[in-house]
Amino acid sequence: MAAYKERIDRLNMLAKLIPAHLSKSDCPDPGRLLGSMAEQYDPLASESARRRAIQRDLEALVKEKRIEVVNPNGKPLRYRRLIDPDAADPRMWDYARKLMTSLIRDALPERRLERIWAKLREEGDEFGLGDDKLCILSDTQRLLPADIREEVLAATLEALSLSRTLHATYRDRDDKLTRPVLHPQALLQRGPRLYLFAMKNDELEPVRMYALHRFISAKLGEEASRVSEQFNLQDAVRKGQVDFAGDRQVCLELRVRGYVAELLRDCPLSDNQVIEDESEGSPFVARVSATVPDTGQLLRWVLGCGANVEVLAPPKLREVVAAQAAKMAALYSGPAA
pLDDT digits over 122-138, tens only? Predict the structure, then answer.
């Protein structure tokens, strides 16, 4: 009787461990599930015997229609939990609805949609919005992430979580090798690269950005990390510091047409953007002014808009865009090499 109850408890635990809303590629396989339930299967048995045992339990859950195989012809098999809509607790969905409403009410006025997506992903089972139903794409060219050592990322996250130092071996863009003791402040993914904001050694300031793919090694330190009183991650993002811009802001003036005119009417460059129709006969349809951070991202965006944008101000940005356009034109003036 005890063995029977033990098996029932194990099956219930296994079923709860299998998510209900994930894409096929993210659904767990027996090996991953065994790693999470190692204590539930005889630790003295061989690995193959433990795998056979969890496979039998998975097959039992499939027969009971509590889980399903999402890749019947694949190896290894992957599993997803099934939800009986008649058995769903309406109080749970009421809670989820209130949470969703609160998220939207807090984030939407500030146009911070990323807060909504992060929470929806975190609470994926309650909302039923897994990767098969919710996807966020950047409007820039999608590149493969920079190659990062597994132990470096693990040590970095641990140092941030525990507010401890990070002993690193770092190779900068000039190929110079250093071994700083870092005081982590925050981690940021910008495009396909991860950056660590940290103070170095005994320096009180500044907070520097370290590209994680440039770490040769990293180890959690024993010391508590110092906290910068001047640094705030969200302020750094808002001011453009994450794109190496410092605190510089520029008054941007553009003439726009085509898809860019429509885009900026829907998605302003800043809260103080002003957009006005161009006069009749102009090759452009609108004139736009806005105060924005002076970043490399701004230059890349303007260049990416091609002939749909003309920079009027600031003069320095106009000169840089003109020079880059001239260099591009020269590359395409003759046959390909």
Answer: 665 556 666 666 677 77
